[in-house]
């Protein structure tokens, strides 16, 4: 009987340690935790593009911003010159996505003529945006620049 209790106890401890390791790691959708850092950068126009990047909204998301029902954490309005604008967030430890959008025609829809870009600026074979997260370590300050293009 004593041997069975040791096995049960060992299994319980192993499961608890494993669960703590899984829950303690950073993955998409994990809530940000811990001491804050800073996420900042510049918004610039892609080569050959014409526009004004001042007042571009930059949003930090906890989940994939291109999936259904993304979770936005913070939004900042970039300020600077027509060619280069800066943004900055106080941010916790975790994995985040960054999207920049200037609603040029003020219709609250990402559409033709708007300035649009995201961290890593990746697209799939069909030209659809692919989200790439950036990882922020406890107390880290990181700089991530975003290039925007005029949406066709």
Protein model, in words:
15% of the residues lie in helices and 42% in strands. It is an alpha+beta fold. The model is unreliable at 1-29 (pLDDT under 50). The chain has one helix at 2-24; strands at 33-45, 57-61, 72-77, 79-80, 84-102, 115-118, 122-123, 129-130, 134-136, 141-143, 146-150. It contains 1 helix and 11 strands. The chain folds into 2 domains: 1-27; 31-150, Immunoglobulin-like.
Write the layout of secondary structure elements.
Elements: H1 2-24, E1 33-45, E2 57-61, E3 72-77, E4 79-80, E5 84-102, E6 115-118, E7 122-123, E8 129-130, E9 134-136, E10 141-143, E11 146-150
Parallel strand pairs: 1-10, 1-11
Antiparallel strand pairs: 1-5, 2-3, 2-5, 4-5, 5-6, 5-9, 6-11, 7-8
What order do the helices and strands follow?
HEEEEEEEEEEE
- Report, as a whole number of angstroms, the end-to-end distance: 73 Å
Portion in helices: 10-25%
Sheet of most strands: 9 strands, mixed
Seen as an oligomer or otherwise, the chain set is: single chain
Summary of the model, kept short:
Helices cover about 15% and strands about 40% of the residues. It is of the alpha+beta class and about 150 residues long.
Key phrases:
152 residues, alpha+beta, Immunoglobulin-like, 2 domains, 9-stranded mixed β-sheet, two-stranded antiparallel ribbon, 1 helix
């Amino acid at each position: 009987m004593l041997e069975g209790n040791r096995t049960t106890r060992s299994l319980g401890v192993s499961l608890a340690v494993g669960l703590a390791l899984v829950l303690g790691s950073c993955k998409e959708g994990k809530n940000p935790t811990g001491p804050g850092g800073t996420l900042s950068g510049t918004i610039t126009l892609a080569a050959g593009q014409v526009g004004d990047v001042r007042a571009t909204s930059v949003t930090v998301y906890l989940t994939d911003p291109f999936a259904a029902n993304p979770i936005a954490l913070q939004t900042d309005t970039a300020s600077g010159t027509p060619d280069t604008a800066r943004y900055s967030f106080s941010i916790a430890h975790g994995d985040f996505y960054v999207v920049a959008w200037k609603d040029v025609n003020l219709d609250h829809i990402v559409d033709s003529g708007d300035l649009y870009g995201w961290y890593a600026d990746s697209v799939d074979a069909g030209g659809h945006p692919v989200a790439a997260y950036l990882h922020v370590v406890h107390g880290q300050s990181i700089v991530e620049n975003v290039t925007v293009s005029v949406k066709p």
